[in-house]
Structures
1.
Amino acid sequence: MRVSKIEPCIDCGKRLPRKELNRARRCSDCAMAAVRDSMAQMHQKSGPYYEKWKENLRAAASRL
Ligand SMILES: [Zn+2]
């Protein structure tokens, strides 16, 4: 039987089976916090998440 690999969450360092971490390697608590954080930044139109979003939008637009 294959045992799921244990990996640390990139934010809090909590060690969980890989399948319980999301694609960004965050546990569900940190994923929720990250969503809340990014929502707040989108609202304020500043911060690393907002900058990243703008970058992605620009990249997507240039592919059209
Ligand atoms: Zn975490």
2.
Amino acid sequence: MAEKILSAIDILRKRNGLPLRDATEFEALNRETQARYGKIGHKTFSTVAAYVNHNRWVADCQNCGAGMALQPGVNQVVCMECGERYDVAWPEDRDAIEGLLVTRPRKNRHWYPRETLRDLRRENREHGIGKAPVHGGE
Ligand SMILES: [Zn+2]
């Protein structure tokens, strides 16, 4: 299996032991979390920017500051700590970003929205990475 940046499903399985199988189950968990905090129908819908931190797709809750695990393909996230719901701003070139990051050692897999693909390629070159891709990334 091609290596990738960890998604909410991967992260929540590892960290919380939640056996989520797909994006639909992640969305159901989001609704359950909102319900638990009494925030169903609570209209905030601020937008948070997706970024990669230590090999994980995450965003920061603007309400409580907790890190939120994101699921590629799902454009909303609910904070597990406070129940706030957000729209997620994903980068257009997410696959290309992942493709460049997975050639690095895991501890060096970071990306922030201000960084371009050119920046990532340059950083990889500076560290002697990317001569032979580890995986196709397709
Ligand atoms: Zn929160």
3.
Amino acid sequence: MTVALEHPCKPEVLALGGTSIRREVVGQFQFGCVIDNRPVALPDWRVTTDDSGVAAEVARIVGGRTESALINGSDPLEVVTESPSVQVGPGGIATHMKLWGSRGLMHHCDGVVFLSPDGARGRPCGCPRLMADRKEQAKLGRGPQSNTVAIFRLAGNYDMGDFRFQSISWKLAETVRDVRGELAALDDSTLCELSLEAVEFGTKSGRRVSYYKPVVKALGPWRLEGAG
Ligand SMILES: [Zn+2]
């Protein structure tokens, strides 16, 4: 926890159960990089941070090596792990859906009710009930895009502070509903697994397409004494 306070912070606001929680993070989880100017999904997690102590500890817990991140923006260090899954503990996960227009944020909801502006918060937003229909609306520019933000701690070292993972994956948004249901049932004190799953399918033209999708799974009750 002290690590988080000693370093430049990246505040994140999560809406959980109607209340906003402001969190500061010490590092960010990603699973892509840019090769020849093209985004490429990778099978293992990468963790960016601006703190060499955090980078070393992540490399120790998750396994991997630290490199300087020349491409990925403001975090100068990147831990290239050899792991597609990490055990994470109490945190929050929420999907925000946003549609931007020429005058700014036009529609901000969780798929069911508005999250902003304050005057509209909690009122039905009118988005379709099915995720597939929401995705279609977003593709046409008529509906908001999903954006899932997870804030969590590493099970291997609780005191290091919060990490963040952000994804616009609709598949992840779908699993978030289930995980949030489980988290609510388990009093928000749940050990979870954040992992990357390979997905492969054949197109109509016979081409094989593969990609990685992020998945969150609830493993069981979180026990601090077991966190090391
Ligand atoms: Zn909506």
4.
Amino acid sequence: MQEQENLLTICPCGKSNNCYNSKAINFSQCFDCGLTKLPEGTDTETYPKLYKDFSIGNWFPYYLNTKDFTVFLDGTSKDDAKYVYIEFDENKKPIQSTKKEFERNNFYELLKFLNDETI
Ligand SMILES: [Zn+2]
């Protein structure tokens, strides 16, 4: 029997067993809190304080920046942190009307949204 490639395991956050691990693409991410394992040697010096506050080892909140949109964890403290999605106009300026917020501990909702938006 073939060993299963992708496994859901316990997240370093300790509150989730929906942590996705793919050995094939060397990718680990918690579907509940969005903590994502960074490749060895990633320079996190310049990461925002909020990201450092939530980090566990080399696991950090999710961040994505494309030419069309960005996703990042926004907030003034750990208490009000939310994932935010926002699109850019052709001058790379955020379009406020496209802004969407997602609960930090419901990261899967954001993934589903991104999946629908980008296909
Ligand atoms: Zn987690």
